[in-house]
Every structure is written in structure tokens, then in C-alpha cells.
Model the fold of this input.
Amino acid sequence: MTVDLRRYEQLKQKVDQYQREADRAAGALAQLLERLKEEFGCDSIEEAEKLARKLKKERDKTEKEFAEALEEFETEWGGELE
Done:
């Protein structure tokens, strides 16, 4: 009987520990979601992922435009700069 009681107490401690960890994770998630809302206007992770994809496309487009403009500048003015 005492073995069963000890085992019960061990299991109860583990359950309590896991519950505390789950509560901390839920709190962290809530904070991150609030930060997403405040900083980026996103109400969900899905919205944030959609925004991230959009921003990456814009970044790629801007980088390409910059590279083209730089190449054009160097072609036109490269001799003057050397």
C-alpha cells in the first residue's frame, strides 16, 4: 500500500510540474501573440506568416531593383570612378 502511495505522489509531482510548464508556455505564447498584434497588426500566427511572405517578396524585389540600378550606375560611371 505504501508503495502505491509513493508512486501516486511521484506521479502527482510530475503532473504538477508538467502543468506549470504548460502554464508558462501558454503565457509565453499569449505574450508573443500580443507582440505580433502590437508591432505588426497580426491577430494570428497565420496572418504573421502571410505578412512575412509578403515582406520577403518585397525585399527580394527591392534587392533585384537595387542590383540592376547598381549595375547600370557602374556601367555608366565605372570609368569615372576608377
